[in-house]
Amino acid sequence: ICANSPQAKGRVERANQTLQDRLIKEMRLEGISSIEDANAWLDSFIIDFNRRFARPAKYPKDLHRPVLESSEDLDDIFAWQESRKLSKTLTFRYDKMI
After folding, report:
1. Which domain holds residue 16?
2. Among 27, 54, 87, 96, which is disulfide-ready with 32 (CB 3.0 to 4.6 Å)?
């Protein structure tokens, strides 16, 4: 599944929703009612969550490729630039919208 496909986005959103739902319920069970208590408790929640739900990688080898371009080249590669003119009211149009 491609990372930007609707299926992948649905998986990520479902995972985030599950995590948010579980986090709130666990906080309620622990009696946490302040940000300070939540921040102090969060590290132990993450450790426990990962212990219960983490899976080993399908391939133990790191399959990432090194970046061969410089950071300046990457800025050019990932930048979308278009020229625009400002009107007298200092607005501009993009895709026929102000």
Report:
1. 6-59
2. 27
- Collect the ranges in the chain with pLDDT lower than 50: none
Q: What pTM did the predictor assign?
A: 0.47
26 within domain boundaries: yes
The answer to the question of residue 80 being in a domain is no
Compute the 3-state secondary structure of the chain and give helix, strand, coil in percent, each to the nearest 5.
50, 0, 45
User: Would 22 be classed as within a structural domain?
Assistant: yes
pLDDT in tens, 23-46: 889 999 999 999 999 999 999 999
Long-range contacts of 75-78 (CB under 8 A, 24+ apart): none
Strand partners, 94: 97
27 contacts 38 by C-beta, under 8 angstroms:
yes
